[in-house]
Each structure stands twice: as C-alpha cells, then as structure tokens.
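Changelog entry

Holo records now carry the ligand SMILES as an explicit input line rather than a separate metadata file. Below, a converted record for NG,NG-dimethyl-L-arginine, shown in the new format.
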Amino acid sequence: MTTETPGQEIHPGAASPAASTAPWPGAESGQSTTKHFLMCRPEHFAVEYAINPWMDPSAGADRDLAIRQWEELRSVYEGLGHRVSLIDPVEGLPDMVFAANGALVVGGRVYGARFKHPERAAEGPAYLEWFVRNGYDRVREASFTNEGEGDFLTLDHVILAGTGFRTDITAHSEAQEFLGRPVVTLRLVDPRFYHLDTALFPLNGHNVAYFPGAFSPGSQEVLRRLFPHAVIADEDDAVVLGLNAVSDGTHVVVNAEAAGLRRTLEHEGFKVVPVDMSELRKAGGGPKCCTLEIRG
Ligand SMILES: CN(C)C(=N)NCCC[C@H](N)C(=O)O
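Structure line, unchanged by the conversion:
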C-alpha cells in the first residue's frame, strides 16, 4: 500500500545477516527482525538553540562530520539488511535529523508528533505529510504534546511511554486509543534523559535495557515487574547516550563510547555494532534519535 517518492527509497545492497539463522547466542533473546526505517539527512544540522541540557549553541557543531556519522549509521542499517527510506530535510529545522521524534508508527497507523518547543513545531506536519504522500491513510494528528518515538517505545504486547519533560501524559491515552495497544506510562525524572529513548531501548519484542536512575521510584518498580530479566545500564553508559540504541533482536547498534553496556550486551549474546554519533550528540541525539521505525 505504501508508495514512496522515487529517489527517496534506498534498497539494501548486501545480503541480510539479520535474516540469516546466524548462530549468535542472541538467538535466545529473540529472533532478528528486518526493519523499515525513516531517516533524515542532517543537511541543515546545527546547534542554534538550547532545549535540552546537551545543547550549547556557543560550542558550535561540525555539520559535515554530522553528515558523515549519519551516513555511516545509514550504511550500518543497510548492511544489516534493513530498509531505509528518506524524508527531505527542511531548511530552518536543524533538529529534523532526529527522525524518531517525528511520529509513532504501529500496525500501519501513524500517530503524529506535536512538539513541545516552538523551535521544532514545524517538524510534526513535515513528517505527517511524508506519510500521507507515501500512501499511509490511517494518520492521526495529535491533540496533545508528544515527541513520537522519542517517548513511545513499542514492544510486542505493550508500548512504553515516557512523560515528565516532553510528552504530555494525556498523549499516552490518545495513542492507546488510536493504536489499540496498551500504553504503559513511565515517569522520567532526570533532565539529561528528557526522552524515554535516552534511558531505555527494546532489545527485542519482550525485553529492554534501561538506566534505572532516569525513572521515578514507581516507574522503576513497574519496569522491574514488567522486565525482570532486563539489561541494567549504569550512569556511565547513560551519559554517553548508550541507551539511545537500536536492536533488531540480534544486532544492537549502539554509541561506541558505551563501553560497559557493550560488554554486557555481548555477554547476553547480542551482536554489538558500535557507531560514532558524537557530533549529533551535541544536539542531544544518538543512533535511535536518527531512526524512526515504520511498523506495518
Ligand atoms: C535521544 N533523543 C532524545 C531523541 N529522540 N531525540 C533527540 C532530540 C534532540 C533535540 N535537540 C531536542 O532536544 O528535541
């Protein structure tokens, strides 16, 4: 049903290791899934304003380096056999590279983002427009503030939803109603981890890795109950945005600096794919932020 603008589609070149029956011990953590991602080349990337504690406009950012790091991330996905589509970057929207914030797409239904900060407000309609243009007809403009997959992370039977800094808790029930999936609210308490995807990522359809210190005591308890076998990350890994990672159930694409987390994931049987996203981190983003998953 989805038709994409010619030239925007990128076809995976290499054979897919993710689709193979690779004997990595990660098999016990779940099967590898071939995914469809939407990304936005950082052609207008800059740190021009500060809307999170990572951003310092006076420090400057090297756009060419950001583009090289982003290209590397894109080829990692393609090399793993994932499909990558592109949305055109819009001049004047320096954070548009963080595609994860643009929407939440589950079962072919697109729940649009509504950004908290006016600096990013125009990104919501830009991403929604991409989905409409590409044939998605179950599209919902949000009535409440929410920053897409920055604060909504989807597992097989539940969607985990962050609140506290960006996404309004009322958006959680709006998303649940629209998507027909149970949404579990998690409260974020540390401003460095202002989106859920800075503090937690799904390892597969039924387990997660997370940094407990980013969550309120009640939400920590919820996470312990839901995921008794979760991978627990420490603050050293969290402060290099190590939890802003993307897993296909076998491979985990993770910030290279997250040394402890990388070791733990390998020990758990995952195939770790380190990437350097240091330039994009100056705006508060990592690999997951650059990646919006299109499900269905
Ligand atoms: C990992 N995170 C938090 C993301 N999903 N998005 C990055 C957004 C960065 C942007 N400057 C902002 O502060 O909104």
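Spot-checked after migration. The first strand starts at residue 9 and ends at 10. Residues 225 and 287 are 28 Å apart (CA to CA).
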